[in-house]
Amino acid sequence: MTSKRVLPAEWAPQSAVMLTWPHPGTDWARIMADVEPVFMTIARHVLRFEHLLISCEFVARLQDLGRELNDYAEANGLPGRVVTVPAPANDTWARDHGPITVNTDDGLAVLDFSFNAWGGKFPWEKDNALNQHLANAGVFGKHPLQSIDFVLEGGSIESDGAGTVLTTSECMLTPSRNPSIDRAAIEQLLSEILGADRILWLNHGYLAGDDTDSHIDTLARFCAHDHICYVTCPEVADEHYSALAAMEEELQEFRQKNGNPYKLTALPWPDAIYDEDGERLPATYANFLIINGAVLLPVYNVPQDQDAIRIMADIFPDREIVPINCRPLIYQHGSLHCVTMQIPAGVVTL
């Protein structure tokens, strides 16, 4: 008999957060001086609550990071410590190339789905092999890494921890990911591998400048089993207005397993941010990370940041809201949740 599986909600207890550290061989090279401090801020705040798993292709930099951050944690009496693993990487989007961990009747299972850079948009071979480097280093303890022959990015799925998975059809059904699998087959696979007993599909919603084909973690997030927060655009003239209004209608039609509608909370719409070429960048407050005792919230140095902080404090009254300026991250078309991957409690032990 197959063991019962469930994909934990992000608010479930965690052992560590994973970061794939930027290096000069990535597309961050031009703005390393801007982006490294963002990673460092994320790292230091994570250590206030739990352990940190860092990989980096540049071994000397990785060794310095380990010493610096562990000294910082020890000097400040923090509960977290850092484990470092040298590993090649094409980029830094740990949310999408990192492991996805599920609970089973037989214990925790650490899953290594295939990663192909959002349908082959960029080089991906190093990123796709990164989880095996972590496993070879022993960071997953007694939990063997299980390879899954299916392209799935962590940013494309949201779980309520009780069998419901929220996703987008734009991403999940893109032929460049899994060309031979249709929607019904994907639902079956997510049921078998992640324990999803129902899939909520959003067919609308996007962000300009997003390379992921509308990852759910840029648009709508579970805050509790009965609560979803989501991006909304109040400006009729904005290119996002129609798609996000249609997404809001879909969310209003969704029902919990008990038949009740979800509690819905709209997130602020940040002022438009553009790069030097005039391309609009995907700033979103939905790209937050829930960790033990806190929520790390991306902010962008725009007036709407304060409203976002206030709303998140209302959503998560029992967690500290930690705003982190992630404006440099969106210049490579991602944000805070995109560069992190939580590892559930019981996997990483120090």
UniProtKB/TrEMBL annotation:
Q: Which InterPro entries does the protein's record reference? A: Peptidyl-Arg-deiminase_porph
**Coiled-coil regions listed:** none
What molecular functions are annotated in GO for this chain?
Answer: agmatine deiminase activity; protein-arginine deiminase activity
An example GO biological process term is: putrescine biosynthetic process
Q: What is this protein called?
A: Agmatine deiminase
Q: Provide this UniProt record's keywords sorted from A to Z.
A: Hydrolase
